[in-house]
């Protein structure tokens, strides 16, 4: 980050004013502030924890779908905002990561149209791409739009989104993927409510009751959360149980 970038505490009156204009979709006020304060378009707003974000991050922050979001993004980019700028802190996500995490497809398209890197790493999900964020947070419209716009898919991405042809390709291109990747993809298929992908992966060795390190849920739990009742029934037929029903490996045996 260049040393001459404007840095504003979140409570600074200018930060409060420009953040308010963005969140309210007040384009007149936003343009006036940008004109009156050169460098504001690339400014960093620093929160109390030391994390910094750009104005494009403000425009894509949760829950997204701000009034006139597309026009706001266009205004900021026209004023010099870096479409691929990263927040700083525990993660280094771009505005596209944030738009994907909010299922804000219109703003996502605006960022991509302005040249945002669709494969940008640094996401909260294992340092991954905007697509990894979207499918992990069940932001299905954004996930499918990213794929439609050319995002590369991992096996987990493909299984979660029900892209069975791509799942099959993962087993035919260079042989079977590693078993832990198959398990994660199976869990992803359950998370996405994708029974055909789950069945394909189960037939290729996926553990039906695998529990991921990031969430204490089996595939059955994930499918139930998704509301995929037919998939839940199918998992039960295959021996699927909830995490609460699994034996506790740390529980001493009675005796």
Poorly predicted regions are 250-255
Main sheet properties: 3 strands, mixed
CATH class of one domain: Mainly Alpha
Give the helix tally: 14
Protein name: Ankyrin repeat
Keywords: ANK repeat, Repeat
InterPro entries: Ankyrin_rpt (IPR002110), Ankyrin_rpt-contain_sf (IPR036770)
Q: What distinguishing features does this structure have?
A:
single chain, 255 residues, mainly alpha, Serine Threonine Protein Phosphatase 5, Tetratricopeptide repeat, 3-stranded mixed beta sheet, 3% strand, disordered C terminus
Describe this structure in words.
Helix 4 packs parallel to helix 6, helix 5 runs antiparallel to helix 6 and helix 11 packs parallel to helix 13. This protein has a domain of 102 residues: Ankyrin repeat-containing domain (Serine Threonine Protein Phosphatase 5, Tetratricopeptide repeat), CATH 1.25.40.20. The protein has a 3-stranded mixed sheet. The relative contact order is 0.07. The protein has 255 residues and is mainly alpha-helical. Strand 2 and strand 3 form a beta hairpin.
Task: Characterize this entry briefly.
By secondary structure, the protein is mostly helical. Helices cover 48% and strands 3% of the residues. The chain is built from 14 helices and 3 strands.
């Amino acid at each position: 980050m260049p040393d001459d970038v404007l840095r504003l505490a979140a409570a600074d009156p200018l930060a409060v004013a420009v953040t308010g204009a963005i969140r309210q979709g007040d384009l007149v006020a936003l343009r006036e502030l940008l004109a009156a304060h050169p460098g504001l378009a690339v400014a960093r707003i620093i929160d109390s924890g030391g994390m910094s974000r750009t104005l494009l991050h403000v425009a894509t922050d949760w829950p997204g779908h701000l009034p006139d979001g597309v026009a706001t993004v266009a205004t900021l980019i026209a004023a010099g905002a870096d479409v691929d700028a990263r927040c700083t802190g525990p993660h280094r996500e771009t505005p596209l990561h944030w738009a994907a995490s909010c299922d804000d497809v219109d703003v996502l398209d605006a960022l991509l149209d302005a040249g945002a890197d669709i494969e940008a790493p640094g996401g909260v999900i294992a340092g991954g791409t905007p697509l990894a964020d979207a499918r992990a947070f069940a932001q299905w419209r954004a996930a499918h739009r990213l794929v439609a716009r050319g995002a590369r898919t991992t096996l987990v991405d493909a299984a979660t989104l029900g892209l069975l042809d791509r799942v099959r390709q993962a087993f035919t291109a260079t042989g079977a993927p590693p078993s832990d990747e198959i398990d994660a993809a199976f869990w992803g298929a359950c998370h996405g409510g994708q029974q055909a992908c789950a069945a394909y992966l189960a037939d290729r060795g996926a553990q039906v009751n695998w529990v991921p390190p990031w969430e204490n849920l089996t595939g059955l739990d994930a499918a139930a959360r998704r509301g995929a009742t037919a998939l839940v029934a199918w998992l039960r037929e295959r021996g699927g149980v909830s995490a609460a029903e699994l034996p506790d490996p740390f529980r001493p045996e009675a005796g």
